[in-house]
Amino acid sequence: MTVDDSGSGEDAQGADSGEDPLALRLEGLILGAERRYTPFQAARSAGVSMELASRFWRAMGFADIGQAKALTEADVLALRRLAGLVEAGLLSEAMAVQVARSTGQTTARLAEWQIDSFLEGLTEPPEPGMTRTEVTYPIVELLLPELEEFLVYVWRRQLAASAGRVVQAADDEEMVDRRLAVGFADLVGFTRLTRRMEEEELGELVEAFETTAADLVAANGGRLIKTLGDEVLYAADDAGTAAEIALRLIETMAHDETMPELRVGMAFGTVTTRMGDVFGTTVNLASRLTSIAPKDAVLVDTAFAEELIRTQDAPASEAEAAEEAAAAEKEGEEPPVYRFGLQPMWQRPVRGLGVVEPWLLTRRDGAL
After folding, report:
1. Does the pLDDT at position 197 exceed 80?
2. The whole model's pTM is what?
3. What InterPro entries does its record include (predicted)?
């Protein structure tokens, strides 16, 4: 690679290949290395087969690049590390591919958001006559080490929290198939909104909904599993926590005039966890309950209701609660305090799950 007075070797390479010189400079800055290897050369330098290198590369979410010289020393090191974990017996080959896939999917979304919503705003030319090109590189140069440190910090925090939940599991089987409360929160009439609102306005609404939901889920002890535009999926270790989150979501959104109505469906039971996501009949049931829930209301399944009753977060019935209160008053004692109320609804068939009996979850007076 030759270097002339017009710029770096990467700039010259960009001119030869038709790629934007600034894009190449940014790539070099972010990756910390210049392009040196074709995929074949990278695989050989890492000591792995081309087939395995391609599997890792695709799992991380990158397109095939033929035999272009586009890979760096960092790519070789990443291949070597993943392959080393397999060789040491710490990971199976299939698990190593899953590690690559889960990391790639998570960081791809983060990177897209940072470029679209963060860097785009920061790189607006500060003075007339300046181009975005002239300000992008120094801004990225300043932000990169700080964002990298913060990313590692948050990842370690999340890893510690997740590891803590795993080691508290009752047995090895529970580490994968666990009993959780799962909830879906869904904006009502979102499809109609997409036809009436401008794209920018719609994007702001979705971002506000996701931000509010994520904050409420985290603040009240739940875990946000994923967002799907007009819907969020979350989980909690116990039914009481999930119920509190659901009602707070309804209450918060109801006080925001810019937001459509919300509906929530929840179920409690065995859930399979894979790559940060949750699967199984419990998740499917929560989704189905969401689709039949009234506006600004929360529906739960029978197992969820029974769990709230077992933990004394809700009475078995309002009649029973009244009897308990009367008995306590007669004895001069404080009556039991329940956070939630449960009202059985009509049984109904739910596609793929048979007949279910939904329960309407409410907050009891004075329980906020």
Report:
1. no
2. 0.68
3. A/G_cyclase, Adenylyl/Guanylyl_Cyclase_3/4, Nucleotide_cyclase
